[in-house]
Amino acid sequence: GTFLNQTGHLAYLLMQRCKDQRAVKVDGRRTRANKVTILEMPDIKFDATETSLAMRSRDGFHKNIALIPIATSVVTCIFCAWGDDWYCFSLILLGILINGISCFVIGSASIVLQSVASSKNAPPGDGLLMDGNHVIVLLGKEKNVLAITQGKFQLEYKDWVRKRVRKERRNRGIVGDGIHHRPITNTQRSGFCSVLLVIQFLTQLLLIPQGRLFGQVMFLASFAVSWAYNLFLSSMDKEYLQEELLAQALDLSENCMRTYKLGTRTACSCFRLPNPSTRLRPQEILRQFIPNDTHVWAVWRDQVLEQMKSKKSASQCFDLEACGDRIAAFNDVDKNLLSDLLMDARTAHQQYLILQVRKRNLIGSLSSSVKTEAW
Q1: How far apart are CA 213 and CA 218, in angstroms?
Q2: 134-139 and 34-40 as β-strands: parallel, antiparallel, unpaired?
Q3: Contact status, residue 280 vs residue 127, Cβ threshold 8 Å
Q4: Burial profile 175-211: b = 16 or more Cβ within 10 angstroms, e = fewer
Q5: 10 Å Cβ neighbour count for 78?
Q6: Partner of 329 at 20 to 30 A CA spacing, among 2, 82, 204, 267?
Q7: Could you read off the pLDDT tens digit of each residue along the chain, which spans 375 residues?
Q8: Buried b (16+ CB within 10 A) or exposed e, 258-288
Q9: pTM confidence score
Q10: Residue 351: how many CB atoms within 10 A of its CB?
């Protein structure tokens, strides 16, 4: 496996969404609560490049609210024309046109989830995302897991928006190698929209005092409504909107995400032992969970690894008698600590098995009820 010290923004969004999910409380000893989310990644349907996924636009009430400043600007523009104040009429109309053009150009971009390519023969990309007291177990294909750990959001403009400018850059190498020219692609008409907005600002700032009092009041009214609308947009929770966009794009429903709350860190590290991934290195994962390197913790890790590799029951491996001569030199304090740690591991292991049985029974009852309705 590969250990990444830091992942991308999409992994952060996924972690925040899993933290907010309702957790199933697991019985056992309690010191400091830890959460484990088991996420079975659905298959992502990338485009032909196998690295990008176009997002669908999100419908919401904010689109309807945008009609309020638009209608206000149009009405105040008409009132200025009715009052023969052509200065304010032209300036309000100028703002309507320039803002409309800018919103149309910038809003024509589509949000794309950009991932990295993976081999078609790559093994499953099962792994862990760890953030303090919350752990996400990612299960799925390599390409689906890479979309979370190394993917990102980016804007893609249409061809008619992008204005390509060819420049020549001189790259001088060693003397005698000559001069090399490399064409550079330079961006878009969004820069032109920025120039238009600056022109609008300066024109309105200088020419509004030339209008009549009624026209100035109409201009201030449209300005106040537009300011209130921008304030409303800035107050929206952008992180939550991104989480919803990610969940919608990847089809992350509650059926593929299950969160459990455990009482101790040791129970959290042992919770999903029944089906460990062959690609993951258990010894290093346990060290990532609990970096303690005393003799007590070393014995505990050995017992956990032995249970993972053997077919013995949890009661046989997670017991002081199973440790043998390795605890001969332990005093009573060390033995009591090791006994608590082994009890946490045994409880987590057994509770996971119980929850899996309940899940299978629930799925079986749902499938049988669906068959009965179909019959």
Answers
A1: 9
A2: parallel
A3: yes
A4: eeeeeeeeeeeeebebeebeebeeebeeebeeebeeb
A5: 13
A6: 267
A7: 566 777 888 889 999 988 888 888 888 888 888 888 888 888 888 877 777 888 777 666 777 888 999 999 999 999 999 988 888 999 999 999 999 988 888 888 888 888 888 777 777 778 888 888 888 888 888 888 888 888 888 888 777 666 554 444 444 444 444 444 444 444 556 778 888 889 999 998 888 888 889 999 999 999 999 999 999 988 888 888 888 888 888 888 877 888 888 888 888 888 765 444 445 667 777 887 888 888 888 888 888 887 777 766 666 667 777 777 778 888 889 888 888 888 888 888 777 777 777 666 654 554 554 344 444
A8: bbbbbbbbbbbbbbbbeeebeeeebeebbee
A9: 0.76
A10: 19
Tokens of 214: 């009624």
